[in-house]
């Protein structure tokens, strides 16, 4: 159940899409309670996803949730927790409540520039976790944050399954960024770093895939190509032929861009941030740099551009690493344990 189930669109949408499809493959009957969806939709609230977002959805939910659960004979209620998720104000009866946590408001207020004010939402987030029968998280970093900042154990870690795909020939000096253009994704830091990279490699190219509130800061630059949106297949193709993927993110739950880059056999340069560090084997599958340090980030990019063979080797190792730790088989097996399917 979520305020906006629009399919594989954005990180949370991709996460919920994978969860939905995996549960169905395991034999579960899945109903989606959301104002906006095309899959297994069971009407829940008349408000649209674009109006009020998850806050309006959370406020109205107590008035209709129990009837919806009873009508559709729901045994397990799965909610996305944290930023963009559902705040549970009253615990429903006659079903098991599971909160699936990507990242938390405590992390967002601590690490993302200009977002300290979001700590005001942590009491509501804490209340939601107190009403959960089980907490699931997408990464070791999120599990640690839930324990440290909220005092709860979210022991079951279930990221999206990620299997290797065939490697593509690399294009020299091609770097790719995929993500929303916003402060949490380090858009400004990316562009500052890129200016330093061009001093050493004027012929380097940067492809930016994504849109968002910081789109206006993308300067007219012959070295930068901007795509507001591409299909998932096109994104994978671009990641596959890149020499490296750039992830200057301040906070993630389990970065899909980071894992899919490695899935394609592409090395990653990223900030040493929650949701990134748990995926990178330092100096083997990628390079982590201090959070927010644009100069270190630029130096890491230059280091990999200077040694094409080492970068290819790093990408090959990254593909093996991500497949062994985050395979679809392992992720689905974890789901089966949680829901005790037989």
Please describe what this structure looks like.
By secondary structure, the protein is of the alpha/beta class. The protein has two domains: about 10-160 and about 325-340, 3-Layer(aba) Sandwich (Rossmann fold); about 175-325, Rossmann fold. About 40% of the residues lie in helices and about 15% in strands. It is built from twelve helices and ten strands. Strand 8, helix 9 and strand 9 (about 265-270) form a beta-alpha-beta unit. It is globular, with a radius of gyration of 20 Å.
Q: Could you estimate the helical fraction of the residues in percent?
A: 25-40%
Radius of gyration: 20 Å
Q: Count the helices. How many?
A: 12
Task: List how many beta strands DSSP finds.
Answer: 10
Instruction: Outline the low-pLDDT stretches.
Output: none
SSE order, one letter for each helix or strand: HHHEEHHEHEEHEEHEHEEHHH
The CATH class designation of the largest domain is: Alpha Beta
CATH-defined topology of the largest domain: Rossmann fold
Please sum up the structure shown.
This protein is of the alpha/beta class and 342 residues long. It contains 12 helices and 10 strands.
Defining key terms:
Rossmann fold, six-stranded parallel sheet, 12 helices, 10 strands
List the helices and strands and how they pair.
Elements (H helix, E strand, L loop, with lengths): L9 H16 L27 H8 L4 H7 L4 E6 L14 E6 L3 H7 L10 H9 L3 E4 L2 H11 L5 E2 L16 E5 L8 H14 L4 E5 L14 E4 L4 H10 L2 E4 L8 H8 L3 E5 L14 E4 L4 H12 L2 H18 L2 H12 L3
Parallel strand pairs: 1-2, 2-3, 3-4, 5-6, 5-8, 6-7, 8-9, 9-10
Helix pairs in contact: 7-10, 9-11
